[in-house]
Design a protein that fits this description.
71% helix, 3-stranded antiparallel beta sheet, flat, 3 strands
Length: 531
């Protein structure tokens, strides 16, 4: 890379311009995936052309990058897209810091943190040190730098521009034709936007500089020769086995007593609600957050004690492992209880985004706890960071695969069909969902087997959604850089039921809109007045 440094600078400045072209005044859409895919390909070209081949283990990160990058423009549900953006950048970060070494699967938490800060340092420092090294190498090789000096030209332009501007304004006042020609010249270059051009030029240079630091870090600082705590732990074990056993044993005894005493209450379901005098909502909500918090902090306690406890004999190791396994097993029981409480609440009140997130989260944290038991038995505690990373990727990938908003629509309509002791279909909530929900709502409207009451509520919700989208469309046009397949699919779905939706009338055309169904029922397009 030092042999041809201009290749690096031309490439990163081109990427900086690409960022400006894709994102300036353009909402996020396909532009995010395009920019980082092109940046990845440019980095490959630069590094491979200089003999820097990636480690094969690092290549496993590329399918993850591709998956999450695609999710950014095919899903619009907020949590799904937030995690997609986050994990797209995370996979690129890990790929950069482990490009040559490929040991990211063996990273502990300290490795991720230390290498992240090292990468941040490279963003600021490496382009400067690279330039200094290139000049030093050229000097040692006897290569003379170019004697052409741009500074006199720059100084001359700075002095000449205000002088020329003064004379031009005077001449424009003296001659109308010249003044018109001067105005046309200014319009061609849009010099009134000069502050904007300067700002955009600055951030193009900043982005190019940062990308240069990233590419240089991958080329020279990603070998991963030594991991944090690989030879000896960062914090040597200092807590005695007896002290740790007392702490773990006490917590295990408390959890066991809690599970035994509350076992019927945990899993009795509807029968225990009446006995204890709880409503569905009270039963489902009571203790749910506390149980999840207990599971989290108990896992942190176990991992902390594992890192600081002295285990000098085989008997001590087995005893400690047994206590850890007992603790995690009881935590699994508590999570099953929390999961069952959540199911009860969803049966009566339906699904929401938060309940769906929690549902998926409980499954993955349960799998993580099972993995913790296995790692404790195998004495592979260092691998917990990788297990947690896999669980995080799994949770983030589950949401777009599930299609959260479409899932909520399907589950809540099905719950209405099942009937029983449940709340009426909350079609108002459908209005608050993203474009991901619209094709599913349209499918429900077109399903002849659904009751007319469901058709009417779904139709009113779609009319409200169409009104809101028409207002947004009038306020903003989307360029191709902001292409989003969720928005396109929603528009096609709404167009397919235009005839059905036109049977509804809008009696109030300002927010909150009021929609009248063909049967004469009135619906408000507002979170507070719908249905």
């Amino acid at each position: 890379m030092k042999n041809n440094p201009n290749k690096l600078w031309i490439l990163v400045l081109a990427l900086g311009w690409l960022f400006d072209f894709l994102f300036w005044k353009n909402p996020p859409g396909i532009n995010f995936a395009i920019f980082w895919t092109v940046s990845l390909l440019a980095g490959f070209f630069l590094l491979l052309s200089n003999g820097h081949r990636p480690h094969r283990n690092s290549l496993w990160l590329l399918p993850l990058f591709g998956f999450f990058a695609v999710v950014t423009f095919i899903r619009s549900e907020p949590m799904t897209t937030f995690l997609a953006y986050t994990f797209t950048m995370f996979t690129l970060t890990v790929f950069t810091v482990t490009y040559l070494g490929g040991r990211w699967m063996q990273y502990a938490f300290a490795d991720h943190v230390s290498r992240f800060f090292a990468l941040m340092g490279s963003l600021f420092v490496r382009p400067i040190t690279f330039t200094v090294d290139v000049r030093k190498a050229q000097s040692e090789a006897g290569v003379q730098p170019s004697k052409f000096n741009f500074m006199p030209i720059v100084r001359g332009l700075v002095i000449a521009l205000p002088i020329v501007a003064i004379f031009a304004s005077l001449l424009a006042s003296a001659d109308v034709v010249f003044g018109q020609r001067l105005d046309n010249f200014i319009q061609v270059f849009k010099l009134e936007n000069l502050p904007e051009y300067i700002f955009r030029l600055i951030y193009i240079l900043v982005i190019g500089y940062a990308l240069g630091g990233i590419f240089l870090h991958a080329a020279h600082a990603s070998a991963d020769e030594k991991l944090v705590g690989e030879d000896k732990p960062i914090v040597p074990p200092f807590l005695g086995f007896i002290e740790s056993s007392i702490v773990l044993g006490s917590v295990v005894a408390l959890f066991a007593a809690f599970v035994v005493v509350q076992f019927q209450y945990f899993f009795g379901g509807n029968t225990n609600i009446n006995v204890d005098g709880y409503t569905y909502a009270e039963y489902a909500r009571k203790g749910f957050g506390e149980l999840v918090a207990v599971a989290f902090f108990a896992l942190v306690l176990l991992l902390t004690l594992s890192g600081v406890t002295k285990r000098e004999t085989e008997s001590q190791r087995k005893t400690y492992s047994g206590l850890g396994i007992a603790l995690v097993s009881l935590l699994l029981v508590m999570l099953v209880s929390a999961y069952q409480r959540l199911n009860l609440y969803e049966v009566v009140y339906g699904f929401s985004r938060l309940r769906t997130y929690t549902h998926v989260f409980l499954i993955w944290i349960g799998l993580l706890l099972v993995t913790t038991i296995v790692l404790e038995i195998l004495r592979k505690e260092r691998a917990f960071a990788f297990a947690m990373l896999v669980a995080s990727f799994g949770f983030a990938a589950s949401l777009p695969l599930l299609n959260v908003d479409a899932f909520i629509v399907n589950q809540n309509i099905q719950r209405e069909l099942n009937g029983g002791d449940v709340e009426d279909l909350d079609a108002q909530y459908f209005i608050e969902l993203s474009d991901d929900a619209i094709p599913t709502l349209v499918t429900a409207l077109q399903t002849p087997t659904l009751p007319d009451t469901v058709h009417e509520k779904v139709g009113a919700a779609l009319v409200c959604i169409r009104l809101t989208r028409e207002q947004q469309r009038n306020d903003r046009e989307y360029p191709w850089q902001s292409l989003h397949f969720s928005r396109l699919n929603a528009e096609k779905a709404l167009d397919s039921v235009k005839t059905e939706l036109d049977t509804f009338t809008v009696s109030v055309t300002e927010y909150p809109y009021v929609v009248n169904s063909p049967t004469g029922n009135e619906y408000y397009c507002s979170p507070y007045y719908f249905d």
